[in-house]
Amino acid sequence: MNIAQPVTSEVNGVAFSLLLPSETRKLSVKQIYNPQMLDTLNNPVKGGAYDPALGPINARDLCSTCMLDGTKCPGHFGHIELPCPVVNPLLWNDTVNTLRGMCFYCGYMRANRKTVMIATAKLRLLHKGLVKEALDLDIGTLSKKKATGASRGDSDKDEAVEDNTFEEDTDSQDNLSVTQLSDRLRKYCRRAIRKAADIGDYKQTNVNREVSNVIKWITEECRKSKFCRNCGARNTSIRAVNNTSILKEAHSQAQ
Ligand SMILES: [Zn+2]
Ligand SMILES: [Zn+2]
User: Fold this and answer.
1) 141 falls in which pLDDT band (50, 70, 90)?
2) Which GO terms describe its molecular function (predicted)?
């Protein structure tokens, strides 16, 4: 590379996302476990929030991670292992809304199982930037059409005919079993993702908007009734208190 010739570059987009716990641990240079920060002589305590591994607190001190002094060390991330699950404050509303659509008896979302499967498939497609394919996906489409090779039991042949050849199927929406729907969703997603393997110029804003629409749709489906569509159990309400606690209300005597 000839550094005498400037290379033009253009930022096409910026995306923000949350770190996974594994990514946080990889970024961290030190686990913080000591609630005490300074000792009696005002020196940093090992494992505390001022641990020297995170960067020196005085300009003349050397950082134990990068060995630079306090004026040049950029500072380093540490992490705290929480002893129990804690809701991320940024995801508080999403967590409460999701819990309001959950069944506390069988552990599934309260919506019809097939609806949840379609929403999951849509999100999977949107994760790959396939907005049109996600919008086109509904149970009516999957019920009307199926690949001609679907009954042959040969996955390679199934794949070959899926791309171009479809024929009307007599299955109605009610007759489509969960297993059949799962199979068709899997093939639909796999085919769409394979066809668009090189896609990279989609608009993230469109994807985010559709992701929000799918989540809103499935949340509304889950909250249509207090009765779970999977196990039939009647669920109680969820109450969020001061953005700190989530309470499950008890069944009343009349119920
Ligand atoms: Zn450093
Ligand atoms: Zn249930």
Assistant:
1) low
2) DNA binding; DNA-directed RNA polymerase activity
Residue type, 238: I
Q: Looking at the CA of 65, which ligand is closest? A: 1
Ligand 1 centroid to Cα of residue 59, in Å, is 12
Cα of 222 vs centre of ligand 2, distance in Å, is 11
What stretches of 156-236 adopt beta strand conformation (E)? 166-168
Q: The complex's ipTM?
A: 0.74
Measure the CA–CA gap between 76 and 85, rounded to whole angstroms: 25
Structure tokens at 8: 């033009």
What is the rounded radius of gyration, in angstroms, for the C-alpha atoms of the chain? 26
Ion ligand 2 — residues with CB under 5 Å? 103, 105-106, 228, 230-231, 233
Domains of the chain, start order: 18-86 (4.10.860.120), 90-110+228-255 (no CATH), 112-222 (no CATH)
| Residue 117: closest CA among 135, 140, 138 | 138
